[in-house]
């Protein structure tokens, strides 16, 4: 009511100016509203025109399956050093064919390589294969003596990592020596058992009755 009474008291010119100011404000509000709508990102849709589901963010390296995802692999790695600079992965595969590593990562520029053994491929024989590979420590490739050592995860040459590596390899050397002694002992037992078996066979042949013209001696006595 008060606004209408105020309008009646104003002249036509003043009324026109007032309406013009109001319409200008309305236009600005409309522009701001349009601008805010335009700035909003359009919702993503799939092929059917339905709103697409948002992807959950995951930590890099877990493949969208969390910490215990099935894609995470457990691999054991063996370090090979002092290699010829121009060696190929095929040569390494041939040299370590008795242990059959699942993957070979070669750094020919540094003369090193990493043999990887995947538990998902061969869990039951992985320890034996790694032992066979480690037994090739100090063997030669192209007249070069190579180093074959168990390595630990991570990289760099930090003091803690080097100490951990040294302890692990020292323990491994002791275990390797025990395995070699056991292999020699088992081989000696097998050889002894084979010799005993051969001696028994030869003695039984000597004690067997001799035949005369294909006739058993006891049968020959009866004939006579």
Short descriptors:
6 helices, 224 residues, elongated, Alpha-Beta Plaits, 6 strands
Structural features, described:
GO terms for molecular function: rRNA binding; snoRNA binding. Keywords: RNA-binding. Residues 194-208 have a biased composition (Low complexity). Residues 76-153 form the RRM domain. Residues 53-65 have a biased composition (Basic residues). 48% of the residues lie in helices and 12% in strands. The model is unreliable at 61-72 (pLDDT under 50). The longest helix is centred in the last third of the chain and has 49 residues, at 159-207. The protein has helices at 2-9, 12-39, 89-95, 126-134, 159-207, 217-223, and strands spanning 75-81, 103-107, 112-118, 140-141, 144-145, 147-150. It has 6 helices and 6 strands, in the order H-H-E-H-E-E-H-E-E-E-H-H. The strands form 2 sheets. A 4-stranded antiparallel beta sheet has the order 2-3-1-6. It has a two-stranded antiparallel ribbon with strand order 4-5. Among the domains are: 75-151, RRM (RNA recognition motif) domain (Alpha-Beta Plaits, 2-Layer Sandwich); 154-195. The radius of gyration is 43 Å and the shape is elongated. The chain is α+β, with helices and mostly antiparallel strands and 224 residues long.
